[in-house]
Fold:
Amino acid sequence: MSTEKSKQSAADKDRGKVKAIAEAMIALPPAVDPPIAGSRTRIWKQDPSVKELALPRDVYIHAQVKEGPSDSQIVIRGLSPVTPDLNQDFLIDPASDEKAFDAVHTYTIVRQVLTMYQRVLDRKIPWQWNTGTNQDPLSVHPQAGRTANAFYSRDEKALKFFFFKPDSLPAGSPDVFTCRSLDVVAHETGHAILDALKPNWFFRNVPAQTGGLHESFGDITSILTILSQLDLVEYIVAQTKSDLHRRNILAVLAEEFGNAFGMPEGLRNADNNLKLSEVSDEVHDISQVFTGAFYDILADIFTANRNPRLRDDAIVLYETGRYMAGLIIRSIEKAPANNAIYADVAKAAIAIAKADGHPDYATLIEKHFTLREVLGAQAFAGHPDLAHLGIYPSRHGCCGTMQHPEYQT
Ligand SMILES: [Zn+2]
Structure:
């Protein structure tokens, strides 16, 4: 009995020690050692209308995010600044603070897009105005006002996302917030990144295909951003059973925005078969040809590399997305500074794929751009250029960026 008792008292003593240590730990100041390397943030995986992906998801930004949220390249404006918690995290519940959630979500998507391209280039991408000593960040306005629009403005050094109540929805329906769509935020960020790389591609007096490259790069950026998210990659593999030509969230862009305008296929479908001779010079119309070719190349490279016996398809799809991000941005860098057309970017992509040691990819790229009448003997010569008459390609089907007055010169 006495041994039992002494064992009991030793156990009590140990418990007392543990309690004392625990209390001491609780009493410690909140500073964390070693220093926190980055911040967790919370986002919508696609947009709130995509029900199976409607729960918000926590993600990790590898560099520390500051109040705003903000960092050296991106700052959220127009809403009360969101402060991080003691762990430097921004884990906002959308049900309790919608505006703070919108701020964190929008910041995170812009950051993820920029990081994706900076990783594949292995260098920082300065914004268009970051010349000399100007280090101004991109200002991002998640709730810029009430209208059905979203745009990038070089003059304002800003991305602006608006909200609206669509006529097509019953009275009392909630507003649609463009900032809550991963596709829309990634698309507009794509315009800002392309403007940084090719500042002369924006204006009205450029060929329809140059404008088409801008609008297409926005859509391609949405596709590549989805493919940079591991959980979405796995979701797409399951959704399509690894056939990217089945209807899926990758090919259908801006679901909620599209639904609001009665377009169940989203604003546009990347998985199309349009050829240059089948579209007009309207910039959005013509952009679909380039986006469609890019999508088919991506799907074919994924299929060619699949080997489910050895590796999960999700890994192959993620790696394919990463390669395609590097391919498109390097091809754009290689294309002319002025009046670039699809064939310029396609030829650059073929040369880069060969130099990367992928002659098989180069063959696929050539095949798809030939099918689209961009390359080869059947290449479409284009509609008559009426710029000398002051008639420029229309942009009425594009996003707010391409219709913005500052690019109409
Ligand atoms: Zn656009």
